Amino acid sequence: MIQERYDVVIVGSGPGGGTMAWKLAQSGKRILLIERGDYLKRERENWDTRAVFAEGRYQAPETWASSSGDHFHPGLHYFVGGNSKVYGAALFRLRQEDFGAVRHPNGVSPEWPVKYDTFEPYYQAAEELFQVRGQRGEDPTEPPAPRGYAHPPIRHEPRIQQLADDLAGEGLHPFHLPIGGLMEQDETGAATPHSPLLRCDPFDGYPSLTNGKADAQIICVDPALKQHPNLTLLRKAYVERLLTDPAGRTVTGVETVVDGQRHVIQGDLVVVACGALSSALLFLRSATDAHPDGLANRSGQVGRNYMRHNNATVLAISRAPNPTEFQKTLGLNDFYHAHDRSPANPHDFPLGHIQMVGKSDGTQIEAEGLPSFLQWLPEKPFGWIAEHSIDFWLTSEDLPRQENRIFYRDGQVHLDLTPTNMQAHHLLRETLRQICDKTDIHPHLFNRTLYLGKNTPIGGTAHQSGTLVFGEDPAASVLDLDCKAHGIDNLYVTDASFFPSIGAVNPTLTIIANALRVADVIAGRWA
């Protein structure tokens, strides 16, 4: 039964909303967590490559329009746990330098109004909460951290260890990825008999059939529901809009559709964490006479400054077979900064981040449909290619632009996106190609477009951020420094909407850390 009123209503159960629910439930206050979807079904198809990637079995069945007039399916997943149900679980802190202004060929990545020192204790708490496996001291770009990881890193398998040795032999600094994978290892690195995470290919981009991924459902939502009866989860509920008082200074109701019926749910405080794109759309749908252009949109910034990283997943061919079962254990940040901070980078601007990604299988390779690939190796079957594949994820920073935005036009969702900083991204790819040529890997690199979603980059929304940017000036931002909406006393946001820039690492750990930070702000209000 939906009660009439709660102390806090949280919209969205991904890393931002799920973490907030976990933290605030400990207060004893009445908390309602609203999720648009249901629990993701544990079924054989969780690990079926064709179902997950080629058919998009778990992707939201929506159609949006681009600025060019094309239509596409965004890479969104509506489940308890949000997009974290299928994320790659690489849980990085933003680099300390990412909180300052960073110059790129196409412009400057803006400075954050709240710096790394404020986030550091929350990063530590986030790493411990999500049970991150990692190793301090290997990554030359890692920011200061007074304590190590609570769990040792997931060990490299022999072929990846050989790659790490080869990279080190070239003067580079490979490191163990900080992974939210719940793998318990024995003395050989094998998964123990009761380890939730196995050493197997279906991890990166797949739901976890064994609940071995540190996602928001497994880590936050389900444990909080079990431990705190004051927390309620409302599933399959779509929040249509937020209602406000006539002056527009207080959210008075959360208009929610459940089984075709509309309910107005009241909360003393409301936290929105639908994901940067969906949260901006909710603000736009909630326009009133006091907020004619959308909630908290005096600045005109709601929906603008959208960022999603310049991402690419590429496949290379190892000259020796690569029988690795769990490949996502190695990262390389020697080209993350400009030359003065990253000497291996010959350029005076940053290139970005390189890491391993889940290993290709024959079905994926066949589904990619790579004509140039097949022309180069006309005699090789997909299975042989998969047996020799080594797969990399490349991330370069993209810059916020006013014109990159999400909005409604005639009831249709439009996402306008002009890529930025592609010069650095192309140079990062070329750098990886040269590295491969020196490490017993064929230097040809082939795109794995299905992993990111077709129509990339417009459909690749995995690292969505920046649509409700925070700042001190209400005329230039949507949220204040506590991620409370300017001019609205009881409305907070805890997904990646608040990011003024995105760096070049996965934003999820920063979302979790910020949710813990804002939870402390809310607890301070109660105190």
Describe the fold and architecture.
This protein has helices at 15-25, 49-54, 116-129, 158-169, 216-227, 276-285, 362-368, 371-376, 382-388, 422-437, 449-452, 508-526, and strands spanning 5-11, 31-34, 64-66, 71-72, 102-104, 107-109, 175-176, 231-234, 237-244, 251-258, 261-272, 310-317, 330-332, 353-356, 389-396, 405-409, 412-416, 446-447, 491-493. 24% of the residues lie in helices and 18% in strands. The radius of gyration is 22 Å and the shape is globular. The longest helix is centred in the C-terminal third of the chain and has 19 residues, at 508-526. With 527 residues, it is α/β, with parallel strands linked by helices. The model is unreliable at 452-456 (pLDDT under 50). It has 12 helices and 19 strands. Strands 1, 2, 8, 9, 10, 11 and 19 form a 7-stranded mixed beta sheet that branches. It has a 6-stranded antiparallel beta sheet with strand order 7-13-14-15-12-18. Helix 1 packs parallel to helix 5 (216-227), helix 1 packs parallel to helix 12 and helix 3 packs across helix 12 (508-526). This is GMC family oxidoreductase. Keywords: FAD, Flavoprotein, Oxidoreductase. Its cofactor is FAD. Residues 210-309 form the Glucose-methanol-choline oxidoreductase N-terminal domain. Belongs to the GMC oxidoreductase family.
